Amino acid sequence: xxxxxxxxxxxxxxxxxxxxxxxxxxxxxxxxxxxxxxxxxxxxxxxxxxxxxxxxxxxxxxxxxxxxxxxxxxxxxxxxxxxxxxxxxxxxxxxxxxxxxxxxxxxxxxxxxxxxxxxxxxxxxxxxxxxxxxxxxxxxxxxxxxxxxxxxxxxxxxxxxxxxxxxxxxxxxxxxxxxxxxxxxxxxxxxxxxxxxxxxxxxxxxxxxxxxxxxxxxxxxxxxxxxxxxxxxxxxxxxxxxxxxxxxxxxxxxxxxxxxxxxxxxxxxxxxxxxxxxxxxxxxxxxxxxxxxxxxxxxxxxxxxx
Length: 306
Known about the structure:
Number of strands: 9
Strand content: 15-25%
CATH class of the largest domain: Alpha Beta
Number of domains: 2
Helix content: 40-55%
């Protein structure tokens, strides 16, 4: 069943050129039933990647452009009084879908950003005292611009911790950019993109992850990494238990895509930065400078014995 995920990857790679590693990481995230944050400058294919993933997985897709005047009700839905019935009727918002693309999420105010917290963690929305379940599966794929750009609101730690993985696409290399310039328009390709996998097959694959073995020693390694992040003085706060669970679940998904029935330390090491870097804030006092979280994670990895 995991072979279908490779078919999805091949199809997405035809649309998003030269980003095979990022596509594989994104599929690992969704296979592990996690939410995905894509952070990069405008115009490098963040939205295209999200749309191609949803279509290739055969999932219902809604896109919301986050702006400073967007309200939580614009995403979750609103109750409107209907004169004919004399009652308020709830009109679901775009969040009631299987894949919600929160485009430029950090252009919305913290109030609107916080409206996603319950949906991302509990897969439900509470409005006017009533709780409504979201479709299954439910993924948030969010894009954000670098925080130094005009009109952005930094995502709070509680929001970042709910994204299983954060990716950066970067600029394409010369060959990939040439193919983009000379090839078919990406939007046109999306219009004709078939589903390479059905939602029921994705759900089956997610259930099969439970059979991917993680030994006690492997769990010890994950715990040691989390503990070191809290005690080594490099970060303002260490990894949360949610982060450790996310790292282990992502390791199972990565191992499954590798064709193995067990997780090895190399799986955890390959995913440490994508799963953990966005959850950690470096201390300015660390080595006299605020080094990037990914660089500090490499130091963390080297300091923890396998």
